[in-house]
Every structure is written in C-alpha cells, then in structure tokens.
Design brief:
disordered C terminus; 389 residues; disordered N terminus; 8 helices; two-stranded antiparallel ribbon; alpha+beta; globular
C-alpha cells in the first residue's frame, strides 16, 4: 500500500505544479488517425472505412468487409469458396469474435460460452523456428467447437476467485482472479507442463497504421539497452515469417507473433475458423485426432489468395475514430497530467509511418488519453493516424 500512496502523492504533486494558464488545445490533436480519422460515436464507430479512402478504392474495402462477416460452412457445400469450416474451430466467422470490429471479452461466469476469447496452449521448448510448441494432443490452440462427425477438443470454462484487500487509507476493495479449467477433454489429459494463455479478440481499428511504422522506429522505441537512461525499455519479438520464409519483426497478436496483417489474418483463419490458406495450407488437426484428419476439405486451400487480400485490405483500412470532447477543459487537463506524470514514456503519443501501399506518409497520434494498444514491444505503440492513401 505504500507504493499506492506514493503514486497518489506524485500525481497530486503533478497537479499542483500545472501551468497557471491551463492546458492548451493543439490544432489537429483530435485526428487520432490523421486524415483517415472518422467522427462517429454510434455502434458502428469501429466499422467505417478510412475517411480519405475515395472512389473505386473503396470497392475492395467492402468486398473484404463481406468476407470478414461471412459465416463459413461445412464442406462439401453448394456455396463453393466459403465452405471448409473446421473440422475443429472457435468461431464460424471473423466477426463472430470481432463483432462490429470491436474487441471481445472473457465470459463473466463458468456457464457462459466462450466467444471472443480463445486459449493458446504450449509446453516447454521451441519449434524449428524458435516458436512455441503446442500440446501433443491438442495443438497450439484449444478448439471447443467442431463440425458434425468430428469431436470437439472439449470444454473450457473460466471461473473467478475473489481477491479481497484494503487500500492504505482503510478503504476495502475486491478483485477477481480468473481461473481457466478444462472439465471435459476429448483426447485425454493435457501435457503435465501445459501453459495456458487466454487471448481476447482485440479491436480491429488502426492496424494498417501500425503495420506502416518503420521497423527501425519500433526498434529504437524499444530501447532494449535503455540508452536514454529513463528506466524504460522493451524488447522486440523476432518471429518466423511464413511469407518471407525468414525471421522478421513481430507486430500483431497479443504477443506480437505475426509480422504482417496477411500473416495474422491467415493464421486466424486457420486457428480460429479452421480455414486453410496459401500461407497455412495444412488443416489444424494434431496427431491422434483421426476424425479431424479424415474430414472433407473445402479445397486446397479453402480460402484463396484473392479473398485473403480482400480481408487484409479491409483490416488495414478500418478507420480510427477521432478523440471526443477534444476541447473540453477536463479532457485537456487530463492530457496535461498524462504528459507531466510521465505516462508518455510508455504510451508513445506520436510515431511516423513509412511510405508504402495503403496508409502512408503519416504522423501517428495516440493522444494523451493513452488509448493506444500495446503490441510488439513493452512500450505501447500507436495504432492510430495517417496522412494519405
């Protein structure tokens, strides 16, 4: 509790030494996504195309949107090109977890279905590319659903243990600690060394802008050796890139395990929906799951490169909503305190994007709210902004 008290005293000290003139609005700071920014606060705020995406260049965006929302079905089906679901899976569509391109959440109780949350599985060791090793019977991701004639891998539930405590001033608090359990397993027990990593589906906005940050800028931001002496450093994740057939800087996923959006989307099609692609042509059927291995395929691969390109285009160009109430004195005061408290040491407020197809020539601005999403390094990197498309 002494640490909490010290933090509060530091915050009060920051407030006390604020400028007499008060915080000032900086022109353009409301443009969380630069010229791509949209101003929408309704239920579809995360589902709009970049504001400066014009004319026929919008067509592929909406084609990708239809693929993102389309439900896949069991093969064989009359709907060729969208069959091949499973054999085991976690959702039947991308939007099943990223509803309206927003984030998922864990179940609130043990009897609530998993939707927007999945469990990654690994055991000690590394694969041939230095990545994690999945469970011998269940692979690297637990699939709790399956097609007819194939057994799902089992049932997972999340329960919560109460953690009670008291603040330094005597005020009580109560927290919930999640506990993940597997009450039903179809193929025997998990490996004794199993490690379980829960992953909620993140929001989809700003991904193309994150992809456009130059690698050297990310490495410099990580500052692994703490060259600037501010006591803050991170470490980039180097991962295997199945497209480049080489090691590359990871950018996407909760642990930055994919280097680009095509790789991330293709990996999600396989792991979450059970759909093979040019980058991941083999079904997700671990050894011992014979019914899974014998199930009818929807093609080789089940989603072709054109559809992958459409979904990647869509996910790159989802617009970032602008900051709300950006000239409100309370918001500006929060921005000032955010800066003076040193929060920007981790939650980087601006970052450049490189020239590349798609969002380019941009100046990234997360804003003083610290609303950027952590990815790639322990310092938070911006997912917002861009100047030209």
């Amino acid at each position: 509790m002494s640490g909490t008290r010290a933090s509060l005293l530091a915050l009060f000290a920051v407030a006390a030494c604020a400028d007499d003139d008060g915080p000032q609005y900086e022109p353009g700071e409301e443009l969380s996504g630069g010229d791509t920014t949209v101003f929408e606060t309704g239920r579809s705020a995360f589902s709009l195309a970049a504001r400066n995406l014009k004319g026929e260049r919008r067509d592929q965006f909406f084609v990708g949107n239809s693929m993102f929302n389309r439900g896949w079905v069991t093969a064989p089906s009359s709907t060729e090109g969208t069959d091949g679901l499973g054999p085991t899976f976690n959702a039947a569509s991308c939007s099943g977890c990223h509803f309206k391109d927003g984030r998922g959440r864990p179940p609130n109780a043990a009897d609530e279905a998993f939707l927007g949350l999945l469990l990654r599985l690994s055991i000690p060791g590394e694969d041939e590319h230095g990545g994690p090793v999945g469970d011998p019977m269940y692979g690297g991701q637990f699939n709790h659903m399956s097609i007819l004639g194939v057994a799902a891998e089992g049932t997972a539930v999340v329960a919560y243990d109460e953690v009670a405590g008291t603040f330094g001033d005597g005020t009580p608090y109560s927290l919930r600690r999640p506990r993940y359990e597997f009450p039903e397993l179809a193929f025997g027990p998990l490996d004794p060394g199993i490690m379980v990593s829960p992953r909620t589906a993140p929001a989809m906005i700003g991904l193309g802008l994150l992809e456009a940050i130059p690698e050297d800028a990310i490495v410099a931001l990580a500052d692994e050796a703490d060259a600037d002496g501010d006591g803050i450093s991170g470490r980039v994740n180097r991962v295997w890139d199945p497209k480049g057939n080489a090691v590359a800087l990871g950018r996407f996923g909760w642990k930055a395990n994919q280097p680009g959006l095509e790789q991330q989307n293709s990996g999600a099609f396989l792991g979450d929906i059970g759909i093979t692609s040019p980058l991941f042509p083999n079904e997700n059927c671990p050894p011992g799951q014979t019914a899974c291995q014998g199930a009818t395929s929807g093609g080789t691969p089940e989603i072709d490169q054109d559809k992958i390109d459409d979904v990647s285009y869509y996910s790159r160009l989802l617009a970032v909503p602008g900051r709300r109430d950006f000239q409100d004195p309370t918001v500006l005061r929060g921005k000032q305190l955010f800066s003076k408290s040193g929060c920007a040491g981790c939650h980087t407020t601006t970052a450049p994007t490189s020239s590349r197809p798609g969002p380019s020539g941009a100046h990234l601005r997360c804003g003083a709210s610290g609303s950027c999403r952590s990815s790639t390094i322990t310092r938070t990197t911006c997912t917002t902004a861009a100047r030209a498309i």
